[in-house]
Design goal:
By secondary structure, the chain is mostly helical. It is built from 19 helices and no strands. It is globular. It starts with 6 loop residues before the first helix and ends with a helix.
């Protein structure tokens, strides 16, 4: 049986793991402030991360970790994520009504609550924790720190698949002013796109159908982005033994060449994302109006206080029906405690709604996360040591 670690050691491990992540974000912030990372270079890094590094991370980790049996046992991750979204949406709407927000503001608060950072921050925290003694609490009997870390990353990446799907569908609706208004605007925009096509002189009905097709194509491209496609390919490879052997067995044809290259690129993903995140937190415009302060306060209180407590309580109370893997339990609680997704800014820019408000939410969420994540990780580790 694992010897119990002193409380001070667990708290120190939590501080060490979160500080590594937050210091990397701080380097990005200072780099932007010093002019090393301007708007153009930040956009270049974002494109590199989204189109190359993140897909590499997804393929390397999901493909190596997953198989058909594990895929079946991972049902708890999507179940928890969908439940989290539903509960968060209901609580956000209730809080919005209590604060007397209008419907559009209520939906914005809901978006800030239900969409959390499901990739960069949780993965960075787990990778940092692997270098501390606390990783022993998240390992199974036959585990190594490296195996436990890789397994935790694979759990997080499964959640990120769902996050992409919900963010670019539900998230777009939550940011829209109204369903009717947004539909009319979309039709108008699609019409503008078609003014440069041979359908210029087509009948209104044909133009509308073509406009819907164009809109659907762009929406599909937003949802099925490179990270999601890489994860789907990784799932196919992982659950297909001959393909998995080719890529992930040491005697496989691609193991020492293509797979090794993909892994190297994936290892660069998280530091790059953290640095870019820090730079964005410096450059994003912020809104200091009273209405924005009210919405930001509501989002931070719900996202960083209420949801972690509810999520943690749900996972721990249902653990006997969910899993006996401490790493999976840790990941599920960590996802509930993560701050608002930085990618929410993309939805804001797409819909041209709440851009400065979203930037304000992100800035203060990650400032608060410096304290709340340390507390959350310490609490989780203490519970794991003395209760599980």
């Amino acid at each position: 049986m694992l010897d119990k670690l002193p409380v001070g050691t667990l708290i120190l491990a939590s501080i060490e793991s979160t500080s590594q992540t937050l210091l990397t974000i701080g380097i990005g912030y200072l780099s932007a402030r010093s002019g090393f990372l301007n708007d153009k270079s930040q956009k270049g890094l974002q494109k590199l991360t989204i189109n190359v590094l993140t897909p590499a991370l997804l393929f390397a980790n999901v493909g190596a970790q997953i198989d058909l049996q594990k895929l079946i046992t991972l049902w708890a991750v999507p179940a928890f994520y969908v439940g989290y979204i539903c509960i968060g949406f209901i609580i956000a709407l209730m809080a919005g009504k209590i604060c007397k927000f209008d419907w559009a503001a209520c939906k914005f608060v809901a978006a800030g609550v239900i969409f959390q950072n499901t990739t960069s921050l949780p993965i960075a925290l787990i990778q940092s924790m692997a270098s501390t003694r606390a990783i022993a609490l998240l390992m199974r009997e036959d585990d190594t720190p490296s195996a436990a870390t890789s397994r935790g990353i694979s759990f997080i990446l499964i959640a990120s698949l769902l996050s992409n799907l919900f963010r670019y569908s539900v998230g777009t609706w939550l940011f829209s002013d109204s369903d009717r208004k947004r539909t009319n605007e979309s039709d108008s925009e699609d019409g503008e796109l078609l003014d440069t096509t041979p359908l210029l002189n087509a009948t209104p009905r044909r133009r509308k159908i073509a406009g819907m097709a164009v809109s659907g194509w762009h929406r599909a491209r937003e949802i099925f982005n490179p990270p999601l496609l890489a994860a789907i390919v990784a799932l196919i490879v992982g659950i297909t033994p001959p393909l998995k052997h080719l890529f992930f067995s040491q005697d496989g044809v691609f193991y020492s060449s293509l797979t090794a290259t993909i892994r190297q690129l994936g290892q660069a993903c998280i530091p790059m994302v953290m640095i870019t995140l820090g730079a964005e937190l410096y450059t994003l415009p912020r809104d200091t109006s009273s209405s924005t302060k009210e919405m930001v306060t509501a989002i931070i209180l719900l996202k960083m206080l209420v949801m972690p407590i509810l999520g943690g309580a749900a996972v721990l109370s249902l653990r006997q029906w969910v899993t006996d893997d401490p790493m999976m339990l840790f990941v599920l609680i960590l996802l509930a405690a993560s701050p608002t997704a930085i990618n929410l800014m993309t939805i804001s820019q797409m819909t041209r709604r709440y851009e400065s408000e979203t930037a304000t939410v992100l800035f203060y969420s990650y400032l608060v996360a410096a304290f709340t994540l340390t507390i959350a990780v310490s609490a989780i580790l203490l519970i794991f040591q003395y209760k599980l």
